[in-house]
Design a protein that fits this description.
CATH superfamily of the largest domain in chain A: Type I PLP-dependent aspartate aminotransferase-like (Major domain)
CATH topology of the largest domain in chain A: Aspartate Aminotransferase, domain 2
Strand order of the largest sheet of chain A: 1-7-6-5-4-2-3
Oligomer: homodimer
Number of helices of chain A: 16
Largest interface: A-B, 168 and 167 residues
Shape of chain A: globular
CATH class of the largest domain in chain A: Alpha Beta
Strand content of chain A: 5-15%
């Protein structure tokens, strides 16, 4: 039979070339401008308008990667990437992900690859123990963990499970559903807003609770708002507290919020997307005080635990609520293992039916680094950020905006908002480093997120030199 | 500085070993039982209870892959995998995905990697042309395409956009929201039920329209039900038609359904998750007649277009509706390119904020095979399935349940439901081939889904021999 497939022999050859290409990329990554310098449409217009009729060889595809794609890459893996929150990878993660692509299993239910389900359960349990998470998140208890793609999807999953729990899983409980209200702080990530919208709660039923001087949610204000809402006939059902907000790494007081949630019977979702990784270090665990009061918790190994995107770890305190909210069992998915009740079918734990074998990359990372290695690198990032914060504190040109709990430093040029934006844009356009901004208390603030896998003190020193130099130029004109 | 990272040199060595491991796997894949033979808990119990404190070397991780993980793999990439719908991969797809893992870019917005956005737009446009899809799905028109993870998520995206459109994007339009009703057929994939539930429409507001003898939705019944609902004060807003249902590959009459949707102002979502791939062949396009009436359309290259999971292609006729439903722009994501309006920010096209560079693997596949190669392999699978259907037609032991339009053959042993299940379970437990069942018109039906990348006539011949032999044994006892 005629075949257009790549042969195993060709795969060996091209695969090894690509491994070398990737190793070369990491060895030379500092030669690229961190932020891509292309103009809108430049890449699009460089690619032919139509798909090729005839197949092409691997060399010409890789030539186009070099010539057409690479100029359009913003280098998230550059050690001088300080923007947003990182999307870290590491060599062990890349290998784990390659194995997942190679095996190509789709672990929607236990039977379709028992190893995909059971390794995931085990690795999620590992993290419960290694990060000192509440015992009921462990699979041996009422709860359990599952890998989701992103914190956005996990937030939606939590909102839906909370909605179903309060309506007693009766999807026709219209009387109450229309009156549901959810609570986040003014600093909570935008994905919660999106989740509330998608779940049909309505943005007008999302309350933004005021924060204190540290930009953390004020439990007193939360209590007041719940009271106001109850009096007005609303049905409060969901609160999101954040360990490390996106704008400023603020830490909401989980215990105080959790106690209100317990008393009021609200679902507490705790978002530790970025800073959750720090819990692997015992000395940082105080920020998670009260986490045992949470109904769900997430953190993203694809941010700060060296596991490539996408990998979001999501735990629930009571898996019954989750499964009852998401389980739908058509005939074509029925099977003996599911019917036995002895197995987990993760498709009942999230939105998607199909699922990639994501546990492999997380397993590779944890085994390669060991918990010792993970702690080491997380502590090092925090140390670098604290050093940077010190420089800012003692600076003539810059000021610290909030005290950095971990590895995100929020600061500003002592000048106007426009000057701050101008400084950032000039530096980012230079391609030397890449960082981003936010707004805190109505003011433009610059963010240095120090968490890229390969960032060392040399890169942070260099960033600081560039900032000082450019600030000097800007302010002396 | 002390570092626990894998070095580029080690990555080169281990990466090449892993490339060989994967090539070996595909060369030897037929030696494995297709369906994993492990018992519940077997893999879980073989993995240590706690994460390692000290890092381990790559060899010991790979030893555990061989010894602990492999027995728990159900081999989706085996050419004797005929279960469910496939989750195909191919060597070019694995390489494209490896490159994506290596680059590790997170393309949530244009600026965070222009190439990730613009290659995706181009490849989605390629498919519009290559598959003869309606012109308004092309990015140069009102619509456009985006890669989602799965058809489930895409269905939810369509339902939410439809809900927002009918409520005029006013999320507080409670009066109408409570009365929204959606329509699918009794054969529509369960993910639509899940999407309706997640979006807060309520399962009681999902109408299952009856099908005809070919298991296709009856447009007349749809029209009647819409009329009944309107009279009862409901607000019909969404219909899903399927090109190739999961149970039997039934083809809903898209044109007739689409005309009703246009007249009634309902959002028409067309689900071609599996059979959509066939549209690359001009001779199969008649099943998509009327697709220009659809508001959204999906197909999964990760099913039958040799692109590894996850890769779902989703198009909308009018991107305004989608973006208005999913766009939320916090300060920390604001940037010049977005403000210019000259670029696409794909995070506004779906649930997730973060996104992997998935276009690479699809681009690698299309360039490697060319449209010619893709057509060749899709035609070959259809040919194999039609041959298998002929054997069934002429068989003494088996009967065909429905005429197979493409590559899914639904048949049964001339016997009881229990005998059919017994036959399937016995064969699957042998590990020689793997296929699954469904229920059609209340009767157990066996499904042979012939679409695995490497399946050849030899594998289909072998499956047929096994079926005949086991049926003989079973019926003669």
């Amino acid at each position: 039979m005629q075949s257009y497939h790549m042969t195993p022999r060709q795969f060996r050859e091209y695969g090894k070339e690509l491994i070398d290409w990737i190793a070369d990329y990491y060895e030379n990554i500092e030669q690229y401008p961190v932020l891509s310098q292309v103009k809108p449409g430049e890449i699009f217009n460089s690619i032919p308008e139509a798909a090729p009729e005839k197949g092409e060889d691997f060399q010409s595809i890789m030539q186009d990667v070099d010539n057409l794609i690479m100029p359009g890459i913003t280098h998230w893996q550059s050690p001088s990437f300080f923007a947003y929150f990182p999307a870290n990878t590491s060599f062990p993660a890349i290998l784990g992900d390659l194995l997942s692509s190679g095996l190509g299993v789709q672990g929607m239910i236990w039977a379709t690859s028992p190893a995909a389900t059971e390794l995931e359960t085990r690795v999620m349990d590992w993290l419960v123990q290694a990060m000192g998470l509440p015992g009921h998140f462990h699979s041996s208890s009422t709860g359990g963990g599952v890998i989701q793609d992103t914190a956005s999807t996990a937030a939606l999953t939590a909102v839906v499970a909370a909605r179903e729990r309060i309506t007693n899983f009766a999807s026709n409980a219209r009387g109450i559903e229309d009156k549901l209200v959810a609570y986040v702080s003014t600093q909570t990530h935008s994905s919660l807003e999106k989740a509330i919208k998608i779940a049909g709660i309505g943005l007008e039923n999302l309350r933004l609770i005021e924060v204190d001087g540290d930009l953390a949610m004020q439990p007193g204000k939360l209590r007041e708002q719940i009271e106001i809402d109850r009096k007005a006939g609303f049905a409060p059902f969901f609160v999101c507290a954040t360990i490390g907000t996106t704008s400023s790494n603020a830490i909401d007081p989980v215990r105080a919020i959790g106690e209100i949630c317990k008393k009021e019977n609200l679902w507490l979702h705790v978002d530790g997307a970025m800073s959750g990784s720090a819990l692997i270090c015992p000395e940082f665990r105080k920020v998670a005080d009260g986490l045992e009061l949470a109904d769900s918790f997430i953190f993203n190994p694809h941010k700060w635990m060296f596991t490539n995107f996408d990998c979001d770890c999501f735990w629930v305190a009571d898996k019954k609520h989750l499964i009852r909210s998401f389980s739908i069992l058509p005939e074509y998915l029925k099977n003996k293992a599911t019917e036995s009740g002895a197995v987990i079918d993760y498709r009942d734990w999230h939105i998607q039916l199909g699922r990639r074998f994501r546990a492999l990359k997380l397993w590779f990372v944890i085994r390669h680094y060991g918990t010792e290695g993970l702690r080491h690198h997380i502590r090092y990032h925090v140390e670098l950020a604290q050093k940077f914060a010190d420089w800012i504190r003692n600076s003539r040109q810059f000021e610290l905006v909030v005290e950095p709990p971990f590895n995100l430093v929020c600061f500003r040029l002592k000048g106007t908002d426009e000057q701050n934006m101008e400084l950032m844009n000039r530096i980012n356009q230079s391609g030397k480093i890449y960082f981003t901004h936010t707004k805190l208390s109505g003011q433009i603030v610059l963010r240095m997120s120090i968490a890229q896998t390969h960032t060392t003190s040399e890169h942070v020193d260099n960033a600081w030199s560039i900032l000082q130099e450019e600030a000097e130029k800007l302010m002396n004109v």
